[in-house]
Amino acid sequence: MNITYYGHSCFGVEVGGKNLLFDPFISPNELAKKVDVTKIKADYILISHGHEDHMADAASIAKQTNATVIANYEIAVWHNAKQGVKNFHPMNFGGKWKFDFGTVKFVNAIHSSTLPDGTGGGNPGGFVVDSTEGSFYFPGDTALTYDMKLIGEQYKLKFSFMPLGDNFTMGIDDAVKASDFIQCNNIVGMHYDTFGFIKIDHNKAKEKFSKAGKNLHLLEIGETKNI
Ligand code: NI
Ligand code: MN
Questions:
Q1: I want to staple 42 with a disulfide (CB 3.0 to 4.6 A). Which of 37, 46, 67, 144 is the partner?
Q2: What is the whole-number distance in angstroms between the Cα of residue 170 and the centre of ligand 2?
Q3: The total number of structural domains that make up the chain
Q4: Measured in angstroms, how far is the CA atom of residue 141 from the centroid of ligand 2?
Q5: Structural domain that includes position 43
Q6: Which of 190, 198, 201 is nearest to 3 (CA)?
Q7: How far is the CA of 48 from the centre of ligand 1 (A)?
Q8: Is the pTM of this model over 0.85?
């Protein structure tokens, strides 16, 4: 699968001939200034929770591409009712749905989720995508949780995204443990370096994953990698 990094926790993933875009936060991100938001392809936009640093560009990209917003009920409906996004698919915890690219399961995260205008954004979550090309996990913003073991038992993940920045989410040590829980050795880092609170030492992070027998990919913003 081709993965493109747009900074912070925003990734494009090509799967089943479709373009999936996760947690778009690009135009307010100082580190992602070279990304042209108007050129991003998206058939689906998956939003893990209601914080600005995960959905700042979701409505505009959805309108420009006609993409379907996949999120929890509260966030999906808010994009339709308050942002004028036409295509949306609401989900809730433990539920899965078969789309034309594969199946998406909405799974637990431990975090918070208020929308930018103060509306309740429901509870934060993550996504497991299962396709004929393999499965992967996008945890969103979350603490390390024992629930992740269930994902390892239920899926054979080809790769997983994992927040690394600490302070607002799990940090590097917990991310290594989370990767054990989900039984995955191929990890793509996210939610690091964007703000002062979440700056990480790249070499140290890679070293810690490598000591645990895992491969940590830290993509350059704008880079596409086949994983
Ligand atoms: Ni958040
Ligand atoms: Mn965040």
A1: 67
A2: 11
A3: 1
A4: 6
A5: 2-226
A6: 190
A7: 9
A8: yes
Quick one: tokens of 105? Answer: 């399961």
C-alpha span between 216 and 189 (Å, rounded): 7
**pLDDT-derived band at 99, boundaries 50, 70, 90:** very high
How does pLDDT run across 183-199, given as a tens digit for each residue? 999 999 999 999 999 99
Q: For residue 132, how far is its CA from the centre of ligand 1 (angstroms)?
A: 30
Which pLDDT score, from 0 to 100, does residue 195 have?
A: 94
Question: Could you tell me the distance, in angstroms and rounded to a whole number, from the CA of residue 212 to the centre of ligand 2?
Answer: 26
Task: Label residue 82 by pLDDT band (50, 70, 90).
Answer: very high
DSSP of 167-208, one letter per residue? SSS-BHHHHHHHHHHTT--EEEEES-SSSGGG---HHHHHHH
| Ligand number, closest to the Cα atom of 29 | 2
The domain that holds 56 is classified in CATH as 3.60.15.10
* Contact between residue 38 and residue 62 where contact means Cβ atoms under 8 Å apart: no
Residue 76 pairs in a beta bridge with none
> pLDDT of 1-40, one tens digit each?
999 999 999 999 999 999 999 999 999 999 999 999 999 9
How far does the centroid of ligand 1 lie from the alpha carbon of residue 26, in Å? 15
Q: What strands lie across the sheet with 2-5, from one edge to the other?
A: 88-91, 68-72, 44-46, 18-22, 11-15, 2-5, 224-226
| CA 39 – ligand 2 centroid, Å | 24
Cα-to-centroid distance, 52 and ligand 1 (Å): 8
Q: Note the ligand closest to the C-alpha atom of 8.
A: 2
For residue 98, the CA-to-ligand 1 centroid distance in Å is 27
